[in-house]
Design brief:
With 111 residues, this protein is an alpha+beta fold. It has helices at 11-23, 71-87, and strands spanning 29-30, 43-50, 61-67, 90-92, 95-97. The protein has a 3-stranded mixed β-sheet. Strand 4 (90-92) and strand 5 (95-97) form a beta hairpin. The longest helix is centred in the C-terminal third of the chain and has 17 residues, at 71-87.
């Protein structure tokens, strides 16, 4: 008899929800880029970019992008989020972010 497929929670969606309730309003965080930022800045976008997964652990690699009216405000919020995430394990519902590291600090991305 085969075992049922075990799925991990959607890391990007769970993290976007956690950041939305902690740093902005829920509609100001998500896993997509809105077509129009009118009325929702600052906006936090969380995108999964890979990461290893085993039967017991899901080690997601995510990018967190912060959009705001000016780069200074966006970088300040991004750094605040970075420090908050790495200071302690975080939980939202059944999802536990128990080991968070940051390879890069906030940086401005120009079009």
């Amino acid at each position: 008899m085969s075992q049922p497929i075990r799925r991990f929670p959607d890391t990007a969606r769970a993290l976007a929800g956690l950041l939305g309730t902690t740093f902005t309003a829920d509609e100001q965080a998500g896993t997509y880029t809105p077509p129009d930022f009118t009325g929702i800045l600052p906006y936090i976008r969380v995108v999964r970019t890979g990461g290893p997964s085993t039967y017991l652990h899901d080690n997601a690699r995510v990018d967190i992008d912060v959009f705001d009216v000016n780069a200074g405000d966006a970088i300040h919020l991004a750094e605040t989020i970075r420090q908050w995430l790495i200071e302690a394990p975080r939980r939202t519902g059944p999802v536990i972010f128990d080991r968070i590291t940051c390879d890069l600090g906030p940086a401005e991305v120009t079009p």
